[in-house]
């Protein structure tokens, strides 16, 4: 009876997540295109539902819902299926779609080429494990630990890069001290310059079009006439001169138009950026904008602290021994003096913390994915890009499960260790810190370079 | 020749990103078949058009087709290009229904009247929703990539399905609808023929449209001769309202 109830709960939640992923696909990702390939949509929703159920199982572990034995089974099943999807299904289908879209490959050769690409992918996937202190092949090849260790490396890298970038980007976007003071009049001046450039392009193209028409008329007349030898000689001499005159004029105008067109593109892109800036300034004056500004200050403090801490961790080779939950309870008991039942509260708080982390990371990833997808995809490559996103999403969620271990008290860590196998967890945390630091520093450098160059542009 | 340099008519070509606006403009201008990158900002493509072909008032006119990039991030800034246009071509992709639904957004950008782009499964309902009659400039709706959906036909007589990789054949329904649209755009400009008597005398010197190999249907060998007749306008032969000199 217990087994039946458990199965129902897990299956129902899987279906619910699947439907959420399906709707997200059509409404957010593919809001500008028609969905032609339902299989890709299925794969995406499937990966999404499996990833969400991973989080759900962690929460069940902490809250001690469902029967422990069946929980263990579900963990293993869920992890195996999602790893199989990430390593086998998605890469093969991505390679298949990419090869199909290449024009110079014969249709018969697509399947063998796909398999070849997949084998190359597997080889590199295996080789990722070499430079890192994770399991050696003595422990078996097709076990979950081997695969998850490598998936973990890739996923942790992606997570750290995104976190580093987000940590720098969020304060930069929302805090007003970083916003450049722009005014509507600058936008109007830029528009005038753009319209002037376009007018010059149009007048030159007009002249060129009339010259081309005249040239065509002369050529047609020349080819349709049947004059005598002398008159042909004379007309060749005459028309030749005016023809080459026209042709040289046309080519001269073409060479004049090209730099004008480049200028107009450049002016247009500047206008787009200026309008964006104006919108941001307008937004920051609203209540919501001011709220985000204040939040941005707190968030930037948190990001600076995080960068500092990861720096310290690397320098002093220290892995955080105490998780936030226990630390919070310690502080509240020792310093603030609240009397709490440690066991009850630690379960409650870690359950809450894991839930918050899970929801915010899912939501953050989905929003980022939708924004990126809408901006970088076009109708030809949308399927391949969305499969790439599904792959990144799966790896991201698997490794956030891995890293979650650090955030929960020791008694729950044991459970996660049991399920995930004998992995070098400390290595993953250290790796996350390193990549986070690199990504944050790189983002700061890139942002300051962009800022300096656009300051120079907008000064006049 | 200097007065001729000022005569060309601005027509906008609008639509979502990657529907094929640039290919369509080159197809109308008579040079189909190349692959083009995504347009940033606007590019202008010149096309010749026989105004009122076959009537005594036939003239060769130059059209500026303003091919405006349809990327979402650039949409607000692209409105700087709309000024001075006398007509608009709204382009959608026949393989992508969302691009047709988004035409209502583009129409709203043109004239400012709010239209809610609601989705619908019935193609006729989607077509009706884009009410081009309410717009104050002539609007034509064109569906591109017709070679990918050969089983679909146009919903009504004034919609076009065009394959931009091929020339538009003279005398085909597409070319007639396009010519009618360009004529209605040109009617709105302050330019017309001189008095009809002048043209009756000159009509013998105008040869009918002789198509030159490799070019589209809109270029004639007598274009230069008839262009010399275009000067100031005193009276429109098609209305009784005297219109001032341009």
TrEMBL record, chain A:
Give the GO terms filed under biological process for this record.
Answer: intracellular pH reduction
Q: Which organism is it from?
A: Caenorhabditis tropicalis
Classify the protein's membrane topology as the record does: Multi-pass membrane protein
Task: For this UniProt record, give its keywords in alphabetical order, as a comma-separated list.
Answer: Membrane, Transmembrane, Transmembrane helix
Spell out the molecular function terms from Gene Ontology.
voltage-gated monoatomic anion channel activity
Q: What is the lineage of its organism?
A: Eukaryota, Metazoa, Ecdysozoa, Nematoda, Chromadorea
Q: Where in the cell is it found?
A: Membrane
List residues traversing the bilayer. Answer: 6-27, 39-62, 74-97, 109-128, 148-170, 290-316, 348-372, 384-408, 428-450
Every Golgi pH regulator conserved domain range: 141-207
Q: What is its main location?
A: membrane
Gene Ontology cellular-component annotations? Golgi cisterna membrane
Name listed for the protein in its UniProt record: Golgi pH regulator
The record places domain Abscisic acid G-protein coupled receptor-like at 283-451
Q: Which reaction does it catalyse?
A: iodide(out) = iodide(in); bromide(in) = bromide(out); fluoride(in) = fluoride(out)
| PANTHER family listed in its UniProt record | G-PROTEIN COUPLED RECEPTOR 89-RELATED, GOLGI PH REGULATOR A-RELATED
Sequence similarity: Belongs to the Golgi pH regulator (TC 1.A.38) family.
InterPro entries named among the record's database cross-references = ABA_GPCR_dom, Golgi_pH-regulator_cons_dom, GPHR/GTG
From TrEMBL, chain B:
Pfam families from the entry? Answer: Roc
Q: What are the alphabetically sorted keywords of the record? A: GTP-binding, Nucleotide-binding
Source domain of life: Eukaryota
Q: Where is this region: Disordered?
A: 207-246
Q: Where is the signal peptide?
A: none
Q: Which GO terms describe its molecular function?
A: GTP binding
The UniProt record lists the keyword GTP-binding = yes
SMART domains, A to Z = RAB
Q: What is this protein called?
A: Rab-like protein 3
Q: Which organism is it from?
A: Caenorhabditis tropicalis
